[in-house]
Amino acid sequence: MDTTIPDENVVRIAVDLACRAPSVHNSQPWQWTYADGQLDLYTERGRLLASTDPSGRQLVVSCGAALNHLQTALTGLKWSVDIRRVPEGPHSGHLATIRFRHDARPQSHDFDLLAAIRHRYSDRRPFGPISVKTPLPTALTDVAHRTDVHLTLLGRDARPTLAKATELTAAARKYDSAYQAELHWWAGHSIPQGGIPADSLATAENRDRVDIGRRFPAGRDNNASAEIDRSTVLVLSTDSDGRDAWLRAGEALSAVLLEATVSGLATCPLTHTTELRQSREMIRELLPDGGFPQALIRVGTAEKKSPPRQTPRRPVESVFSIGRRHSAR
């Protein structure tokens, strides 16, 4: 047995955990191929949200989150990775080539992060504030910076701008029939291999208490303790705005979410305010060094609440193949 190459079952386990990553509307737009000791990550173009995400930016960010989940899982399994990002150029659906080294020495925190993959979920209800009892992890900025991504913590004075950007986005999409049809296809009813079921969506009352959330269809999750959302908002931004930057932003998104989960904080990624040019520029003006905002994250506390139902995942067999290469998508 070649100890420099992981067993196929080890890779399968890691990919299965990677696919717990968050993705836009839980679309899970990824495919993985393993052959000759090399794992490749591709986009699944059939799961592109054409009205929400015509450029495919959020699709790539979603795949980046899965890539970081994969690294986290493999570390816990004692494997390190060497990653070549966007190996076939900026227009290819081939996002990453992963090679393995059996030299990882996971520490206790690495196992905490591994456990967080299973425990993390997107909570769309209002949050209580972070506090001395439940502070933000001090390592978040460094965690994002490892992937060349900037993390900005926005103060309360930015909240009116965030709410205005949300209102602007909602108004622009209100009568967009293609967007609304796409949103209601992916959210609010049961799709066995993806989407956001009603039990994972906040009720209309709780949804309206979050002034900076995407306006999803009303759901059945009414178990909230906060009267209004008092979350802290983080922004992930990059110096450039191409596929490599999008992929790295997704990696940083995953890393920040897992660190926050380990610390007992509730999280919800937000991308609606970076979908349209005007609202994205509003977010960009909040950043100290400019850059391109890729995703926002609400972070807060969710005491005395049971978690929402976790969203369904595609069977690993439908996203993972062994022994053959995919052509670039």
From TrEMBL:
Protein name, UniProt field: Uncharacterized protein
Taxonomic lineage per UniProt?
A: Bacteria, Bacillati, Actinomycetota, Actinomycetes, Mycobacteriales
Report the domain of life of the source organism.
Answer: Bacteria
From which source organism is this entry?
A: Rhodococcus wratislaviensis NBRC 100605
NCBIfam families assigned: Rv3131_FMN_oxido
Q: Which GO terms describe its molecular function?
A: oxidoreductase activity
Q: InterPro entries in the record, alphabetically?
A: Nitroreductase-like, Nitroreductase/BluB
- Renumbered to this chain, region (Disordered) spans 301-329
